[in-house]
Amino acid sequence: MKRLFSSCKIGNLELKNRIAIPAMHLGYTKDGFVNDQLIRFYQERARGGAGLIIVGGAYIHRLGMGGINFLSIDDDRYIPGLKTLADVLRAEGAKTAVQLFHAGRYAYSFLIDDQPVSASEVRSPQSGDTPRALTIEEIQQLVHFFTEGARRAKEAGFDAVEISGATGYLVSQFLSPFTNRRTDEYGGSLENRTRFAVEIVQSIKEKLGNDYPILFRLTFDDLVKGGNGLTDAKEIATVLEPVGVDAICMQVGWHESRVPTIAMNVPRAAFGYLSKEIKKEVNIPVMVSNRINDPVLAEELLQDGVADLIGLGRTLIADPEFPQKAMAERLHEIRPCIACNQGCFDSVLTGMPVTCLVNPAAGREASFDVEPPKKTKKVMVIGSGPGGLEAARVLSGRGHEVLLYEKEDRLGGKLNLCHLPPGRKEFIPYIDYLVAEVKRLKVKVVTGVTVTEKMVLENNPDVVVLATGAIQTLPQIPGIDKAHVYFAESVLEGKADPGENVVVVGGGAVGCETALFMAKRGAMPASTALFLMTNDAISSEDALKFSRSGRTVTIIEMLDRIGTEFGRSYRWVMMQNLRQSDVTMMAKTKCIEIHDGHIIVEQEGERKTVEADTVVIATGYEPVNELYTRLEGKVPELFLIGDAKGPRKCLEAVYEGAKIGREIS
Predict the structure, then answer these.
(1) What's the pLDDT tens digit per position in 10-44?
(2) Which of 130, 172, 586, 640 is the most buried (most CB within 10 A)?
(3) 8-349: CATH topology
(4) Which residues face 155 on adjacent strands?
């Protein structure tokens, strides 16, 4: 890790290492003011060893507010709170920057109580609003507002500022021909499209001096038809460097692009090639980001000349101590970001504050402090799914005597199924982390045993935490007992023998992932397709076709839409993957009867026959909590968490395990 933990300079600002937290909207700041929640969140990341923390985006004008509870820097009244934050982070050893932000056409009219503004009148697919085009006088006023935002950041004690010129926000709306249809000096040629950005940089340097560092977050590929690609990004970077930009920070894609960039199925560091190409064009530091959650990978990217800095956003939400653990080579103790987006992006997209599936303390740092118990207690945790493992981890870490029981031969519960569908393998390091923590903390583990009431009473525990999970429900459909009908879990575990025409009954998360699993089963591995194509054995078209699907799969769902259980940041990715794998999706459809070779469905009042030599049931779960009823009133303290309480997302189960683990005193 020598390169990762070497110093790096941005202008005259020296960082102690090359780990940076990119600007992230967290949803913590009501009315734009810094508060204790925001301070504590970033304090933990500074204390954990991050070299640079970029706070924000902070909107520089009310029309630029990008959503609910955004940070603001559009008035001097925000300086005291920002100063408190900067002082706290400096005391923890981190260098700091504020991202200066304006949403442009991505602003919501109902939030800003006005029409959004942009380079041109190009409708926003995010809000449905069509912005009005800024006048030249208004553009010049915005240059002043960006400059005033930078002044406030410097007065508050921040070491640098970053200009948000990425992700489809205002500055990038000027940079991109997709949203910049102007015919004046701010539109048309690349020189004109960069004019707004250049004037912002020049104005800040003139106001604050050449020594005050400016970072620029740039989209290296818009991934939007008609937008900027890598070639354009290279040119923009070479324009920005000579006018005073001291570092270029990578972003990939706009919010409206249909190329996955942050989902779990995106390979780690998949877009690093963009950063490497930009780095060739400039002599200032370049930051790479997107799907980097491993210090070994981060070191390789630096050694291979891909970048000078590593941007770790979600990774440091998941584990604030990532830098310290990596530097001490305690890699197995790093709580891995699994790119599930359940607690971060999905929360933001629904107006909720950011938290984290694998780290429920994120955003709750003050209330989730770990304190020793008043009395050491004997705790039985029954069930080793995500909630049970997290409860055992926290309880043991606090000093309780923990006994963990699991009826299967291995720990993990439903997590052992989560990683089986295509693109979900990031669950594996999370399972490994939890199991390693249980071992490190010397939790007594018993597997392959179904716990009974008698066993509990004989153990005489002070506390019992039941995390016994849920089982799949069996719908009442004629023919459901036929030999070619399987539960989704059996299919994922390889216990079924599917045919060539598979129907999945149930289009929720489990149904969709099982359908994709079945479609890909028997398809040509992507590595094989690439080998054959590279050696001219097959065409690129055939390589794509053979790797997409191996059998015919149909999803039957009673609701109006398929995949409604997925969060907004991932549902469209799953739907795209299903379509690419030629999965037929039938919403508003009910399975009426199951026969040999086909099923009868009813779709909007019309009965139809669908071929099916295999039927997979994915219609939901019911909790397993009979033991809870039996133990009520017979043990001093009894808790029910996770799916045993009621089927829920992994995010909720882990939170409940963490909360119970901290509350038992």
Answers:
(1) 999 999 999 999 999 999 998 999 999 999 999 99
(2) 172
(3) TIM Barrel (3.20.20)
(4) none
